[in-house]
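Protocol step 4 of 6: record predicted structures for both targets in the notebook before any analysis. Target 1:
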Amino acid sequence: MANFHWPVRVYYEDTDSGGVVYYANYLRFMERARTEWMRALGFEQDRLLHDYGLLFAVRSASLEFLSPARFNDELDVSAGVQRRARASLTFQQVITRRTAPDTPLCTGQLKIACLDAATFRPRPIPDFLYQELPDVD
């Protein structure tokens, strides 16, 4: 599952006074896609926290805003692992309109760290999970 896609509809609450998606909400859309990607792999984040004492947190984010999304747009949010390390994952994410999938509205590169829930210190991604992650070149 190297490139996962998740549909999102833009609600009124997602927009600013001009009817355009507020810039911070693109991060929320990307977060949803990564969460659903984990779920599609068979891992629920609340179970990982409860059973294994681990959580994932954004370490860094770099976004490019290319064209605005607007109220009621149907979007496609992709999540693809670009780099896989023992204690982190780097995702490349793209948001497009479902009616224009070749025209990115927003792109992002996000580094996600695996953390010990008790100490918030980095820890290796457990083998049972690491083995399920897609290989990347």
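Target 2:
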Amino acid sequence: MAVKTVLVADDTAFVRDRFSTAIVAAGHRAVTVQTGPELLAHVQSAGSQVDLVVLDLRLPQGHGVASVKALRTIETLRAPIVVFSGTIANAAEARELITLGVAGYVNEYTSVPHILPSLAPYLFPDHYNRRSSPRVVLGIPVSYRFGNTIAAALTLNISHGGLAIRTTSPLEAGTTMKLRFRLPSSKKDIEAEALVAWVDRRTGMGLQFSKVHGGDHSAIDDFVQAHFFSNRKS
């Protein structure tokens, strides 16, 4: 895959360093800024070279959603904008971000091994199934059966429409399979049918649900809704 440049805008060194480390380790370039003026200055000077913006809405002198609006006025910036979910103040702000065309959300406290998989769908949209629903980082065991073969792995994230799993032996895109997994705090296994929507040899594969029983799908929806905004900056 091509080398990409990711602009990470966050006022917390811990977040900037972790995301930069994960991005560079995967062979890409990371540029970090920590204030609103720094963000706008970099995009104004090098916006055409940026492939993805990962944005903290609470940057010093950043003015929340106004930062996204300001970025949208810079014609050279063609990159998608992803927002750190813990910096969204409320549901009204989330709705406004949708109208501004924000591509998605990522948890700023995502563990380093999960950072690139969470960003890859925005860096390589042609290779991934672009689900519009939010993803929640989640590492739980999942077993899957294709043909007469049964395998097991850990999930990377889950959404209303499917899940991503970490594996060094991903299947071909379009492969159908049966899944079994259990959500945290649940006593019941969820069984589903899915197909492989995207493949990345370095991270794993994304599975799109094709059949989930009604009650199980409700459990997935409730889990995603409950955990998507579970992290907040004070």
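Step 5 preliminary note on target 2. The first helix runs from residue 13 to 25. The first strand starts at residue 5 and ends at 9.
Proceed to step 6 after PI sign-off.
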